[in-house]
Amino acid sequence: MKILSKISFIFLIGLICLTQLTLSQKCLEYLRPVYRYETKVIDCPMVSTNDKRQSIPTSNDLMFIINFKCLTNDKITCGKVENVLITAGKFITATLNLKTAITVDAQFLNYCLTYGDCDQEKVILGSTRPARMIPIQDTDGKVRLYPQALLKQLELPEHPQYGPSDIITSFNSDTNFWFEGDPLYTLKDNSDMLYVVVHELIHGLGFTTAWRDYFNIQAITPVPGYFSTDTKGQFFEFGFDKNLVLLPSGKSLTSIADELNKFPIKLDITNNEFISSFLKSPQFPIAKNLYKNAVTHGTIGFLITPNLQPNTPITQDDVILLETSLNPFLRGSSLAHVDAQTYFDSSDFLMMYSYPKISLGQMMFNVGSTNTTGPIGPKLRLLLGTLGYEVKKDYIPPVKLSNLQSNNEIQASKTSIPSNTIKPQPSADTNNIEKNDSSLVNFNFLLSIICILLSFTYSIYSKY
Ligand SMILES: *[C@@H]1O[C@H](CO)[C@@H](O)[C@H](O)[C@H]1NC(C)=O
Ligand SMILES: [Zn+2]
Questions:
Q1: Which residues have CB under 6 Å of ligand 1?
Q2: Mean pLDDT of 40-58
Q3: Centre of ligand 1 from the C-alpha of residue 188, in Å
Q4: Span of the secretion signal (predicted)?
């Protein structure tokens, strides 16, 4: 297989991943460390479900299998981290009826010592990615990339061979996490690991979009790639993207991808050659227009109302609004999260790009979802159902978490922890972290975690 070294990683993803027009026999895996770009191609021959090559654990309690490696000497913290991972799995299986067990490879290690990532300004808290992205010909005939965890739930009669794990995640021991039982006032400086892990696992389950500004040209496209060197390239969506629509028109982003795919993607060109020919193409204004939507609040959503006719005008009730308030577009934060302004004080808060600096337990308590939907709110439930997961009708809290009422530290907490009345700043204020002045305090206050999409990996940064 020919790998063109001048072409950026996104082309490599296309080149090495999409080798056949139907279901692929090649899959893409990532090399450690998980937040970097390096990838490798592995063979994943087609197997049918009665093929014994795939063994599937069936016990109900074991639907989230955590393979945990703790690479620090602090055994007490190791125990706490492992507990959080198990608890996070319980919160997800309290909402989802998983048909096939999901295996999570998790590591807790010092990024500074291990990888030389020692930047104290922008500390990486952790990083999560689907173990494999698998190209699948969808019901509408389009090929989209699906994370393995999701594909497993669809119970396809035939599928590419799955890897040993579905989600790969690691957390940086060189930061301060807050664990259940720690004093609440320390949440101001430390991130609740459970909140972070549940959020990240939802990304790993398929809450991830291929639409982004790959070339920093203020235009967004799905990921460019190609099947083989003798076909032309194209833009590929992820499974998630099938459901994205513009508001209020109801126009699907897939129809925009179709328009963009009239642009011929040549294989043997450099990044700069790609950019200059794309800039001159009639497709560029389309991608530029969509960028304008992606930085305008309330204009892009994930359709959760089934059976709507195409191009029917839609309202906020039909969708879960995605994060389109950030200007400029922030890779990995924009679009790949729910709209913070809309959902900050609702039970659908979990997938906001910013971490609210209070624990998951308190956040659920504040919005009143402790005993109703838990961390996965009603719209997120519909979204996961639309992706293909089977959603349980009822929610029974698997674990009781502390909140202001169950804790004696009410006074300390009230003075140091934001309440749900603090709203994220509107887009004009959030548009540039560095340049901002008056809103900086508020902004940093809220934005202690940013998910940044690197390749298909979500890294969580802590910015203090
Ligand atoms: C949730 O239910 C439990 C058990 O019934 C109860 O103790 C707790 O107070 C409830 N929490 C909230 C926030 O309603
Ligand atoms: Zn995220």
A1: 365, 370-371
A2: 55
A3: 25
A4: 1-24
With a cut of 80, say whether residue 335 has pLDDT above it. yes
Q: Which residues of 30-66 are buried (b: 16+ CB within 10 A; e: fewer)?
A: beebbbbeebebeebeeeeeeeeeeeeeeeeeebbeb
Q: Name the amino acid, one letter, at 256.
A: I
Give the pLDDT of residue 46. Answer: 67
Determine which residue's CA is closest to atom 3 belonging to ligand 1.
371
- Position in ligand 1 atom list of the atom nearest CA 406: 9
Domain boundaries, given as residue ranges, for the chain? 26-208+336-463, 237-321
d(CA 337, ligand 2 centre) in Å: 6
User: Which ligand 1 atom is nearest residue 370's CA?
Assistant: 13
Mean pLDDT of 357-363: 90
- Tell me if residue 290 falls in helix, strand or coil: helix
Which residues are near ligand 2, the ion (C-beta closer than 5 Å)?
451
Whether residue 44 has pLDDT greater than 70: no
d(CA 86, CA 450): 23
Ligand 1 atom closest to residue 365's alpha carbon, by position in its atom list: 13
Q: Which of 20-24, 107-111, 181-185 has the least mean pLDDT?
A: 20-24
The pTM (predicted TM-score) of the whole model is 0.81
Q: How far is the CA of 265 from the centre of ligand 2 (A)?
A: 30
- Least Cα distance to 229 among 456, 458, 2 occurs for 2
Q: Flag the least confident range among 20-24, 102-106, 433-437.
A: 433-437
CA proximity to 263, closest of 240, 289, 283, 247? 283
The tokens for 239 are: 């499974």
Contact in structure between 300 and 335 (CB atoms under 8 Å)? yes
- pLDDT of 401 > 50? The answer is yes
* Better-scored residue on pLDDT, 410 or 398: 398
What separation in Å is there between the alpha carbon of 180 and the centre of ligand 1?
A: 17
Which pLDDT belongs to residue 22? 33
Euclidean distance between CA atoms 243 and 141, whole angstroms: 15
d(CA 55, CA 161): 11
